[in-house]
Amino acid sequence: MGATFRYNYSYAAKQISRKHKVEISDQTVMNRAKQWGYYKERRKSQNKHDSLVITNNTGKLIQHDSSHHLFAPLAGKKWYLITSLDDFSRLMVEARFVEAESSMEHIKSLERVFTNHGFPYSYYTDSHSIFRFVAGRDDMLFHKNYYVPNDGVDTQWLQVLKECGVIRRNALSPQAKGKIERPYQWLQDHIVRRCMSDKVTSISQGQKILNEEVQFYNYKRIHSTTGEIPYYRFQRAKREGNNLWRSFTIPKPFLLKEAVFAFRLKRHADGYRKISLKKLKFNVNGLNPYDDVDIRIYKCDNQTSKLRFWRNERLLDTQIFKNDQLALSKKQPPAKSLHFTGET
Q1: Which domain holds residue 300?
Q2: What confidence tens digit (pLDDT) does each residue in 129-173 have?
Q3: 35 and 153 share a domain?
């Protein structure tokens, strides 16, 4: 973010308020900068974008993306910032740092948004392989003679959306993602400065600062396009009936959300009733030799995940494994849709 050619006057005003409890406007900071010879004219952007509000309902479109950046220079490594933004209100409904991007981390993002706000009408993403299968790019995952057209395979992330009745929409160009790219720039600019000022070295410290900046963005900052504070625009739309969020309910036939916000796999038992998963080989209760079994993996926390095993619409077993055994930090390939109609 353009620290090389301008200073962030909004950030300076907010820091004065945070540290010294003195309210001061951005314009006052700018005036002082001009007076003291620190002011620089902002460069004119070469890439114009459409800043109009397209949607007219909150929940109609959720912009979802991730950014890989050195948010805390003293930490010495980049983190991924995963965010989700309500297109109408510009409310940031999700913002989380993760050390490694994966399908599972984006599924956990869906879980937080859906359980906190409900089901939106649609999600808007780029064509990253986590979100969309693209022929010629991702079909290397299949046999070389097996042709699969675009969107011919549901990614793990997309399977969760479909099960929850949420539509996916694809951004066909970088310019189409402008509404979420601009909040990224705002957050990046503020967070990097805060992390340097507070000498942040861990992702947990960075998350605390991220939470504070998102709180300010959602509840105090007047958005330059809408002219409203995101939270109050969000609430006003709901009061006036301009709302496409649906209440969160666990999709039938499941009883637990852990069965929905999970990674899906299908395995085949060997003659000794064992199944293989990554480098693991283990028994599943109730499984016979050469049976097929459906698996759903739910990430409980940063250390462990719970695996549930089904066959013929019946839950056979539940087991817990360490995440590093399952390699859940790595990007996972797409998988064909699996459908369950039994007890979870």
Answers
A1: 257-326
A2: 899 877 655 554 544 445 555 565 899 999 999 999 999 998 765
A3: no
The answer to whether residues 323 and 299 touch, using CB atoms and an 8 Å cutoff, is yes
This prediction's pTM = 0.78
Same domain for 66 and 203, yes or no, is yes
Measured between its terminal Cα atoms, the distance across the chain in Å is 47
The residue ranges of DSSP E strands in the chain, in sequence order, are 62-69, 79-86, 92-98, 122-125, 167-170, 263-268, 274-277, 280-283, 292-299, 304-311, 314-322
282 and 189 within one domain: no
What's the structural domain count of the chain? 3
Both 278 and 320 in a single domain? Answer: yes
Does residue 167 fall inside a structural domain? yes
DSSP for residue 312: T
Residues 154 and 210 in one domain: yes
Q: Would you say residue 342 lies in a domain?
A: no
Residues 248-307 pLDDT 10s:
999 887 889 999 999 999 999 999 999 998 889 999 999 999 999 999 999 999 899 999
Find out whether 294 and 286 touch, Cβ atoms under 8 Å. Answer: no
Residue where the block lists tokens 């852990």: 258
Q: pLDDT-derived band of residue 333, with 50, 70 and 90 as boundaries?
A: very low
- Report the distance separating Cα 87 and Cα 71, nearest Å: 25
264 CB-side CA count, 13 A = 19
Q: Are residues 123 and 215 in the same domain?
A: yes
Q: Tell me what the mean pLDDT of segment 214-222 comes to.
A: 94
Nearest residue to 317 via CA among 298, 295, 339, 299: 295
Distance CA 79, CA 276 (A): 32
Mean pLDDT of 306-322: 91
pLDDT band at residue 237, thresholds of 50, 70 and 90? very high
293 with 166, same domain: the answer is no
Of the candidates 107, 170, 161, the one whose C-alpha atom is nearest the C-alpha of residue 133 is 170
Which residues are CB-neighbours of 240 under 8 A, at least 6 positions away? none
Residue 250 lies in a domain: no
SS3 state of residue 46: coil
